[in-house]
Amino acid sequence: MEHLKKYQWYKLAVNIAEINFSANGIAEFIVGGKTICMALHKESLFACTQKCPHAGGHLSAGYIDATGNIVCPLHSYKFGLQNGQNTSGEGYFLKTFPVEIRKEGIFVGFEENNLWNWIK
Ligand code: FES
């Protein structure tokens, strides 16, 4: 059903070089007053909420492991950057967002129907 979703797209940067990634490959962006993470892994970009779904750890202070999981700095739960799956098995789900690299810049998409539900 992914193809039926409608997104509102926000431009985050002109290009990858403009993004201020920390040494862990993660950058924070404020979009609509809320904070998300942009992660760079094997030359691909991924976006997710900044708060860990377990207990609110700041994922921007975590790290990305070799298989493309973002690892929370508080309790080391792991989430796949591609789909938010809790790969360490605790049963949580990390909200992720599509990223598009266009000639006009780098965009992140939020579902139109429940644009801000993920930040409650
Ligand atoms: S707050 Fe992230 S693993 Fe516990």
Structure overview:
With 120 residues, the protein is an all-beta fold. The protein has a single domain, classed as Rieske Iron-sulfur Protein. It is 0% helix and 40% strand. The protein contains no helices and 10 strands. The protein has strands at residues 7-13, 26-31, 34-41, 44-49, 63-64, 69-71, 78-80, 96-97, 99-102, 105-111. The strands form 3 sheets. A 4-stranded antiparallel β-sheet has the order 2-3-4-8, with no helix packed on it. The radius of gyration is 14 Å and the shape is globular. It starts with 6 loop residues before the first strand and ends in a 9-residue tail after the last strand. 26% of the residues are buried. The mean pLDDT is 91. Bound molecules: FE2/S2 (inorganic) cluster (FES).
Short overview:
The chain is built from no helices and ten strands. It is an all-beta fold and 120 residues long.
Secondary structure elements and their pairing?
Layout (H helix, E strand, L loop, with lengths): L6 E7 L12 E6 L2 E8 L2 E6 L13 E2 L4 E3 L6 E3 L15 E2 L1 E4 L2 E7 L9
Antiparallel strand pairs: 1-10, 2-3, 3-4, 4-8, 5-6, 6-7, 9-10
The protein binds FE2/S2 (inorganic) cluster.
The site of FE2/S2 (inorganic) cluster has 9 residues, from loops.
Q: So, CATH architecture?
A: 3-layer Sandwich
Helix content bin: under 10%
The end-to-end distance, rounded to whole angstroms, is 24 Å
| Largest sheet, strands/sense/barrel | 4 strands, antiparallel
Query: Rg from C-alpha positions?
Result: 14 Å
Low-confidence stretches: none
Overall geometry:
globular
Query: The CATH topology is what?
Result: Rieske Iron-sulfur Protein
Number of strands: 10
Q: Which small-molecule ligands are present, each listed once?
A: FE2/S2 (inorganic) cluster
CATH 4th-level superfamily = Rieske [2Fe-2S] iron-sulphur domain
Highest-level CATH class = Mainly Beta
Average pLDDT number: 91
